[in-house]
Amino acid sequence: MSRLSRAILVIVTMACGALAQPCPCDCDDDRRVRVHELATGINIALERMEASRCPAADGDGNSEVEVNELVSGVDAALHGCVAPTPTPVPDGRPTQAELDAARAAWNAAGYTHYEYRYFLGCFCFGPHDVELEVLNGKVVAIRDPATGRDLNVEFADLYLSVDQLFDRIQSDLVGTHRLDVQFDTETGHPTEYSVDPVRELADDELTVRIDNLRPVEGSCTNADECDSFAEICVDPGGFVGCGACFDAMSDCDTDSDCDGEPQICQRIGLKPGSCACDPSVRVCQPGCTTDSDCPFGTTCDPDHHCVPPRCIDDSTCPDNFTCLFAPDARTGSCLRTHCPDLGQCADDGFCVNGRCYPRPGRCGVVPP
């Protein structure tokens, strides 16, 4: 063996020296360096093989394998490959001054009762495209944008008012791996917010987009508060009516008359937007499968019907609901609180047409 060969072998056995590249001598690019790959690097250094046999051993790309490149290969074999440095991505993090200016513009806009389309992007449960209504800084309704129906949402803390979103941005301004925020140029409210709290964690990212923010107009608690005699005060989440109705015929008496689960036999008047002349007509229609399919304040029972939740006292009911008992019953049902007969509405609620809600109703004209 020549003196050059012996020198190379001695140096290769020493795991020292700087790393030339993230994974030197990793000929098969599997992020691990094995003995046979080191041997290939030595043979290239001794000119017994072409450098093309293991491009990873030729860190500087000069078609030769130098001693320092072999040392780097040994270090990678002993201690593992170094993770490649990610390419920096521009960060859309606002400055404190920019955030303060946007919040000042939002406060100056004077919105106290407003609604907007809310798109949620995250590895999380719940609907990701909803309509939110906000009153005095608090989200008072989460609605299906297609039907306008109030939704039962389990993780409601993911659905933020503009003020809550400003607070979230403030807390994320320092210490997060990545933050991108865009603000509306007129009202200052955030139109897009995207955060990756910790680079090393997967699925912790959150994105929020706000579209079509607008004030809520025509609020009411009874018809006397509406501007026109032709208007009625519609309950929150309610249906203004149809005007003309259509005749319908019953096609079932019980659920067993319907074609399989989750079809149920239900009064047509219970279907949102129904315009049947006789609301007591019973028809087969899809039943619920989860609580989120039911109107707010009801739950999905095993027979796929939306029913009031059971309760033992008022504390076991949602806000603005009261636990009412049938004679001799051990448990009651949560039903909307009558007002003012059963006291003031909870949590700064509103007495709309004699029942408690977390927000006022809306004036509307019944179609002719």
Task: Tell me about this structure.
- The chain has helices spanning 3-12, 35-45, 67-79, 96-109, 162-172; strands at residues 113-122, 129-135, 138-143, 178-183, 190-196, 206-215, 219-220, 231-234, 263-267, 282-286, 299-300, 306-307, 310-311, 321-324, 332-336, 350-352, 355-357, 361-365.
- The chain is of the alpha+beta class.
- The radius of gyration is 33 Å and the shape is elongated.
- The protein has 3 domains: 3-79, no CATH class; 96-215, no CATH class; 227-365, no CATH class.
- The protein has 5 helices and 18 strands.
Mean pLDDT score: 83
Mind summarizing the main beta sheet?
A: 6 strands, antiparallel
What general form does the structure show?
elongated
Percentage of residues in helical conformation = 10-25%
Structural class: alpha+beta
Write the layout of secondary structure elements.
Blueprint: H1 3-12, H2 35-45, H3 67-79, H4 96-109, E1 113-122, E2 129-135, E3 138-143, H5 162-172, E4 178-183, E5 190-196, E6 206-215, E7 219-220, E8 231-234, E9 263-267, E10 282-286, E11 299-300, E12 306-307, E13 310-311, E14 321-324, E15 332-336, E16 350-352, E17 355-357, E18 361-365
Antiparallel strand pairs: 1-2, 1-6, 2-3, 4-5, 5-6, 7-18, 8-18, 9-10, 11-12, 13-15, 14-15, 16-17
Structure described in brief:
16% of the residues lie in helices and 24% in strands.
Task: Provide key terms for this protein.
three-stranded antiparallel beta sheet, six-stranded antiparallel beta sheet
